[in-house]
Every structure is written in C-alpha cells, then in structure tokens.
C-alpha cells in the first residue's frame, strides 16, 4: 500500500527534473569531450611547430601503431594491422573522434527525450482519462481506472506503438495552440521538423555509423515524417536547416555536430554549437509540453 501511495504521488516537476538532470549529465560529457579534444589538438600543434623548427625530422612519422590480438589456439600475438599517422592524420582523427562522441551523446539525449515523453503521457493520462484513446488502456474497464497507479499508466505508455511521434500527435491534437507554436516561435524554425530530424539523426548514428548514403534522401524522409514534403518539394529554409547538420566535401554524408567558428580570422573563439542547438530544441519542446500539461491540470482543478 505504501508503494502504491508513493507511486501515485508522482509530480510533474519530478518528471521534468529527472529529464533535465540527465540532460545536464549529457551536457557535462559534451563539455568534457570538447575540452579533451582541445588539449589533444594543442599537443599536436606543439609537435607540428617543433617539426617546422627542426626540418631534419619533417619526414618522420608522428605516430606508429601496431594493432594486435591474441590467437585462440596458442595464445600467440597476432598483428592484424599497422597504422602510420602524420600530423595531419592525427589532427583529423581528433576532430572525427570528437564528432563521434557528440553523435552518441545526441543519440542518448534523444532517448532521454523519448522516456520523458512516455512519462509525461502517463502523467497526464492519469490526471485526465479522456486524453488517452480507449485502446491505450488495454483490456480493462473504466471503473478500474481510479485504482490504477502512475506506474501502471507508464507501463501502458511504453506499450504504445510509434512513440514518441504518436504521443506527440496526441498532445498536438489535444492542445490546439501546440501546432501553432511549433511553426511560429522565437527560434524561427519548425519544431516538429526539428524533433523528427533528431529522431532520424539518432537512427543513422546508432544503425549506420553516423553516415547517410544520400543527404537528399535523408532530407526527403525527414520532411515526409512531419508532413513537410509537399508535391515532391521541401522549402529551401527547411532543406538548409537539415543540411546544416552534415559535413562538407568528402564528409558531406557525415552527421556533423561540431562547433562552427564565427569570424575564424579573429583570435577569439566565437562559435555556434550545433550539438547544443539540437539538445536545446529538445529541452525547449519538452518544457513547452510540460507547460501545456501543467496549465490544463490547473484549469481543471480551479
């Protein structure tokens, strides 16, 4: 009985605080990855300066790597590869590794967002049974609902197929102003497109190593998923927004989340963080949903 009372006492602020605590941890990992890469690049640059000052060593390799494993039958060491890295190679390695870390942190952030959406759906479903479509309740009668705990609602929310998009669609249908704010907001972007973009990026990061076979196909799939691909077209603004999160040149198919320098000729490091842009949109959208739910519950209880 005590456990039931504790679970039933779940508060909206608990759901929000749990989500933001995890997002804060992810941001700390992001900052650590950024600082580590900066230190590694400083060391590489120092070595490059040394080689420039001592031309006798300019043809020497910057680093040598034997790749080994132990053979199963006799325990002998086997060399399966050898890598020789120049200063330029090492510099690129650090950049790509940093980007890879950012990619996985974004994937983790989106998964936290998915969990948050399910928790919020469960919370509002418990406070307003008319919010849920009947099929989400499963095989129970309406008279049983008052005895169901938040944990029960959460388990039902996790069973809902097509989440979090179907849950978001339910919020959008129930809160009339949500769709309007998704289009007209202070960010001057389509928030529905942004959530779909992060979802698709997460899929490519987890299942395709962070590379797409075609950026144009990725743009089409992303736009279609949120109803923004009309008659075979997507607006140039939305297309440019999506392309901003991909690299250039030989890395044009790679999801790129690194910082973009502003006024790179200046000695001061002023930049735009693409990673923080995307996680910021997740937080802003989550807070928007919390605000709608909180307002609806207060209005109902007034």
Task: Give a structural overview.
The chain is mainly α. The protein has one domain (2-58, 87-301). Helices cover 61% and strands 8% of the residues. It is built from 10 helices and 4 strands. A two-stranded antiparallel sheet has the order 1-2. The protein has a two-stranded antiparallel sheet with strand order 3-4. A hairpin with a 6-residue loop joins strand 1 and strand 2. Helix 2 packs antiparallel against helix 10. The longest helix is centred in the first third of the chain and has 42 residues, at 12-53. The protein is elongated, with a radius of gyration of 25 Å. Mean pLDDT is 92; it is low at 1-8.
Strands, count: 4
Strand order of the largest sheet: 1-2
Give the rounded overall mean pLDDT: 92
Distance between the termini: 29 Å
Query: What's the total helix number?
Result: 10
* Helix-strand topology string: HHEEHHHHHHHEEH
Structural class: mainly alpha
- Residues in β-strands, percent: 5-15%
The tally of structural domains comes to 1
Shape, per Cα inertia axes: elongated
Poorly predicted spans: 1-8
Gyration radius (Cα, Å) is 25 Å
Largest sheet, if any?
Answer: 2 strands, antiparallel
Bin the helical content: 55-70%
Short characterization:
The protein is mainly α and 302 residues long.
Keywords:
302 residues; two-stranded antiparallel ribbon; 10 helices; 4 strands; elongated; disordered N terminus
Secondary-structure blueprint of this entry?
Layout: H1 2-8, H2 12-53, E1 63-70, E2 77-85, H3 87-127, H4 150-159, H5 165-174, H6 176-183, H7 191-208, H8 215-225, H9 236-243, E3 259-261, E4 271-273, H10 274-301
Antiparallel strand pairs: 1-2, 3-4
